[in-house]
Amino acid sequence: MASVTTPLPPRNFQHQYRVVSNSCRNYIRISCVLALPLIKRKKAKILSHFASLDAKALARVPKGQHLQRLWLRFIANLTFTREGQSLLLSHTRAVEVLVDHVRFCHDEEARRLAFLGLQNFCGNTAFKTYLYKKSSGVVEVLANALEPTTISCSLYSVEVLLLALTALSNAAYNCTKVRVLLKTEGFVHRLTNLKTFCQSNGKGYFHTLLPIVDLLLKALTQ
Q: Exposed site from 7, 28, 48, 54, fewest CB < 10 Å?
């Protein structure tokens, strides 16, 4: 049986295809540029709803906890970019609501996502002003996360502890003012206690945190 060969399209067709393809690409590019301000406005409107959430009330009901997880996944993803962080910081209560989710969330995943958002924020220069305000509660929740009495032997506890330590490292990096603040707030003592706790846990998960604890202690005691 003879093989069937597909004839090549005529050259003028190939030329037209390239022209149409280029036109489509240009159209998509222009559409994206025009859509960016609209997307930004939509995000800002959505975030205004997040800034009005009552974390304590939501944590009391199962459906509320599901809603918290959905919100915090969205917020945590936003904090991975400077644009997302700027959008969040433009809402005065957004940081306060994020901190409240760390304080009051009973759901482990939701609380971990809230800590992840704080960790990403702590590397942002504009966010560091919240560290100096006691009313923001950021320093308080980071300090509480380091207390051995609040730590269980679960992998979740290790993850939250790692997020808190990374948040502190991000905040202290290349910022003398933050390092002085952390010293004043007793973080050298907390980190020393945490180091002892990690050492006493042998070769477990907590033992792997010793390098970052040592680096933080070195940065704060220099």
A: 7
Q: Which of 126, 49, 46, 120 is nearest to 86 (CA)?
A: 126
Q: For position 222, what pLDDT does the model report?
A: 81
- The letter for the amino acid at 147 is E
Measured on CA atoms in the order 188, 193, 199, 201, is the torsion positive or negative?
A: negative
Q: Is the pTM value of this prediction over 0.85?
A: no
- Which residue's entry shows tokens 């950021």? 138
Rounded CA separation 5/146 (Å):
71
Q: Where are the alpha helices (DSSP H) in the chain?
A: 11-50, 55-58, 62-78, 82-89, 94-104, 108-121, 128-131, 138-145, 155-172, 176-184, 187-199, 210-221
Spatial distance between the Cα atoms of 200 and 178, rounded to a whole number of angstroms:
29
